[in-house]
Amino acid sequence: MPVEQSAHPDDRATPRRRGYAKGKARREEIVRTALRTFAEQGYRSTSMREIAEAVGLSQAGLLHHFRNKDDLLTEVLRLRDAEQSAFNRALAEENGMVALRRLVDLMELNASQAGLVRLYTVLRGESVGGEHPAQPYFAERFLVLRERVAGYLRHARDVEGVIRADVDVTQASTVIMAVMDGLQTQWLLVPDAVDLAGAFERFLDDYLRGLS
Questions:
Q1: In this structure, which long-range contacts are made by residues 152-156, counting pairs with CB atoms below 8 Å and at least 24 apart in sequence?
Q2: Distance between CA 136 and CA 129 in Å, rounded?
Q3: pTM (two decimals)
Q4: Which has more pLDDT, 106 or 116?
C-alpha cells in the first residue's frame, strides 16, 4: 500500500494565511506605486484616486489598506529608508576619514536609484513651505545626518588628528550635506552632464584637504 505523501507546507496554508499574504503583497504594490507617483508629481499634486486607479482598485479599496494619504506617505518614506538600510548598517561600523570617504560610495549608490533620489528631492522641497506631513521627517533626518557626519569629522579631528583642531565640525558637516543635496538636484535635472559620485569625490578631496 503506497505511503501517503505529506502535504507541502504551502498546501497546508489556511485561507486566512493566504489572505494575509495577498493583502501584504497588495500593500507593497500600492506603496511602490505611490513612491513612483510622488517622485514624478509630488505629494500635493497626487490624489488617492490616481494611486487607486494605477493599482486597479477603487478609492474605497485603497482606503481599506491605508486610511489616508498621510499614512501612505509614511510607508513610502519607510520604504525609501529600507532601500538603503544595508549601506547604513555598514557605514555605522566605520568612523573618521574612512566613514567620510564612504559618502562617495553613498553617492554612487544613489546614482543607481534615480527614483528614490527623485522622491527624496521632490518631497524635501515640498516640505519646506507650509504644513506638510513629511516636514517632521525631513527636519529630524537633517538633524540626525548632520550630527552623524559631524561625528565622523570630530573623530578625524580629535582621534585621528588629520583635521585641524580649530575646525567647526558642525559647520563642515552642513557644507558637505549641502553639496551632496545640490549635486543630486543638478544630476536629476541633467543626468548626462553631472557625474554624481565623481563630482562629489573631487569636492570632498579638496574640502578635506582644506581642513587638514
A1: 152/95, 152/96, 152/97, 152/99, 152/100, 153/100, 153/211, 155/95, 155/96, 155/99, 156/96, 156/97, 156/100
A2: 12
A3: 0.75
A4: 106
